[in-house]
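Internal tracking record. Fields below are filled automatically when a chain is submitted to the structure queue. Please do not edit lines marked as system-generated. If the sequence contains nonstandard residues, flag them in the REMARKS field before resubmitting.
Queue: standard
Priority: normal
Entity type: single polypeptide chain
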Amino acid sequence: MKRSVLVVILFLFVRVSFSQSQGIANQFLVNCMDSLLNLSYIEKSMQNFQQKEAVLPVLSPEDYNQRISAIPSTVPLFYDEIVLKYINLFAVEKFKASSAMLGLLDFHKAYLETALKKQNLPLELKYLPMALSGMFPRAFTSIGSSGIWQLSYPIAKRYNVEVSSFTDDRKNIEKSTDCAVLYLKELFEIYHDWSLALLAYTSGPNNLNKAMTRSGSEKDIKKISEYLVPENREILQAFSAVVYFSNFYSLYGISPVKIMMPASDTVKVKEKLHFSQLASYLKTPVKIVRDMNPEFRIEVIHEFDHRNFFHIPSELKVAFLSHQDTIYKHLDSIYFPQSGIYVQKKSVADNTTNNDNSEEGKNKIYHKIKAGESLGIISAKYKTTPSKIKAWNNMTSNYLIAGRSLVIYTNVQVVEKKTVNHVYDTKISSLQAGEFFEYSIKSGDNLWTIGQRYGVSVEEIRSWNNLNSNSRLNIGQILKIKKK
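SYSTEM-GENERATED OUTPUT FOLLOWS
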């Protein structure tokens, strides 16, 4: 009887004390685990998944030490109070997300292990994405690290992982895994110690080297860690906890979700296409298309880009191919407004100019540059070339300033359209107060205007999306908003 009471008291204590993830510096991981449950294929996979309330076994520090020591691992594992907090995060506070996380690990395990074996690295490193991002493919930090492996931009470029204005292959599981494995191998060859290699992975080699110098030690992990920021140094505890949890989750009454990834096909676009155009016309939730294509930074596929293809649910492929010309025009005034553009017919004076780039007989257009546009995008729009645009505007570089106008000569028929300030709130109105919905950032948006629209504060939006005052917003970026 006393043991039963002790179990209940300890369980309730953990539930209360960890309701705010107290003692865990890496709140980004907590947010990623929450976001994981919002993925369309995770929602579908968990519909028929029977998961009881997690059970917390009564274990002493010695019990944890014994169990962790028994796990075969080349990467050092250990137990301390912070490790216990992460174990409780996975096993108690976020047990539903942990079931999904384990399911995703099972789904991708074959590729992860193959990539690690290829570079002769420890197989237990397959658990690292769970500690870094909760296996959330669209994970993105305020400092720019991205994907399940939390790769920085310089590391991605070093290993030829594409990151452009339109796409981010760090969010592609296979491409990011290949990159991360090579980087981990490089770090181990530098430090010859897996604990130091993991600290270098999250903190950066320069920061780790500084910490080693300040601590006066090259091997004392505890001393070195004191000179690193908490959210980076806790990777060692988070990794130990996730390896322990992945081996003993059944003790907590938890099992992996069987992931039901939807069948998909690849299709190519002939004109630029917004995900919401496709979803609206084919009457499918936009989040399904979005979750199938995590690599797209904005929800637009450009026909001139070499990545002019995307994944679509297999059952919609025929409908898309049959109606794509109509789909490109569907709601195009909303998703591709042409505000700031007007047409001026060429005058006689224009026709007599000696400038070879004046394109005699074509219309003279003044194009107002919008944020995120490049000469490549603008030239493709008007069926011309970047070099001609530079010549018409006496430009010596490719640098553009949003708000300024460019002279362009073209035969493309441009009709001035007014920006339609239209917000689709029909689904939002059906939500209960406290439920989250997703908002896609549009041109001209900022946190204040979005907050005013939905009756929330800038601070709340930042908190829900792990943003800070220096975070940049991108057109097409998805924000979580809680309905008031």
